[in-house]
Structure formats: C-alpha cells, structure tokens
Design brief:
Blueprint (H helix, E strand, L loop, with lengths): L1 H27 L5 H8 L3 H7 L3 H24 L5 H19 L1 H6 L4 H7 L1 H16 L9 H22 L4 H11 L4 H11 L1
C-alpha cells in the first residue's frame, strides 16, 4: 500500500513540476513546445505526454489552476464587505503574484487556444464583472461601459503591467492598482490614496 501511495505521490510531484516549468517557460516563449518543457522539467517527452496528451491539455490544466487561484481570491475579497474600489485594490494586491505567473494565458488566449481558455476563464470573468457592477451601482466606478467589458479592460491593464514589469522591473503592483482604478473611473487622487493604503 505504501509503495502504491509513494508512486502516486511521485507522479503528482512530477506533474506539478511539469506545470510549474511550463508556466515559466511559456511565459518566456508562448510558442515553446512539449519537448522544451520536458527538457526544462528534467523528464523525457513521453513523461510530459503521459500527463498531458496534447499541448492543449497542458494549457487547459494551467488555465484551470489559474482560475482556481483567482476565484479563491475574488470570493474572499467580495465577501469582505468593503467598498468596491477598496475590494478591487485588495484583489490586485492578492492576485499580483498569480497575474505575474499566469500572464502567458493572456497571450495564449489570443491564439489557437483562445476558445478553450476563454471558456475556462468564465467564472473569473463573471466574478470580476460582479465586483465592477457593485462599484457602478454605488457610483464608485464609471458607468460608460457595461460591467463585463469595463472589468476586462481594467483587469487587462494588470496583465499588461505584469508583462512590462517582467521585462524591465520598474513597475509593480502599485502601478497596476492605480492604472486599473483609473480605467474603472476612480479619480486619480483616490486611486493613489487607495494604492498607498495597501502598501
């Protein structure tokens, strides 16, 4: 029994290592192949294919992992009862490492895997729209666009800043927070004050 459980544990550790390596490697090069991922993970290609029969399966699993992490943060922030703009700030602070890690999904979402990724990200999109709608209903966020579109624009800014931060290291969560709040229609002085309170 213990031999079987250690074998299963070893398989899960290998699978997790492949996913960790894949998200890093794809973050550097969204076109990286399964062979490159296998090599970086220290396994043979067959091992990668044993866990993920296709590149799409790998991307789906990475997306599911991201969705689980982001929805957990959004659920907690939405349950906090604070004003929508303060909830957005708390969300960005908590989600920044996740956005940094999974920014590749934004690039892959625009490519051949777009439909699959878009479908899996549905729960995150809905929670973001709910938060923005709450802000619109309380006149904290702008109302010039529907909540689902405005939330995507503001969240897209976070990924854009995360991607820029990776390449030159001069921006960070504060810049992402302020810029996304501005996109949501929060006055600059309020956006800066909220970001500084979070720091």
């Amino acid at each position: 029994m213990s031999t079987e459980s250690s074998r299963v544990r070893s398989m899960m550790e290998t699978r997790d290592r492949i996913l960790d390596v894949a998200v890093d490697l794809l973050g550097e090069n969204p076109d990286a192949g399964m062979g490159e991922i296998a090599s970086a993970a220290g396994v043979v290609r067959r091992t990668v294919y044993d866990h993920f029969p296709s590149r799409l399966d790998l991307v789906r699993t990475l997306t599911e992992r991201a969705v689980t992490e982001v929805t957990a943060v959004l659920d907690e922030v939405n349950a906090s009862g604070v004003k929508a703009d303060a909830a957005w700030v708390a969300f960005i602070a908590r989600v920044w490492p996740v956005a940094h890690r999974y920014r590749v999904l934004l690039a892959l979402r625009r490519g051949e895997y777009g439909e699959a990724i878009h479908a899996l990200l549905g729960p995150v999109d809905e929670l973001l729209a709910d938060l923005v709608r709450r802000g619109q209903d309380t006149a904290v966020f702008a109302q010039h666009l529907p909540a689902d579109i405005l939330s995507q624009i503001a969240y897209g800014v976070v990924f854009a800043v995360a991607d820029s931060d990776r390449s030159n290291g001069t921006l960070g969560p504060r810049a992402a927070t302020i810029t996304s709040l501005l996109m949501l229609g929060v006055p600059e002085t309020r956006a800066i004050a909220l970001a500084d309170d979070q720091s």
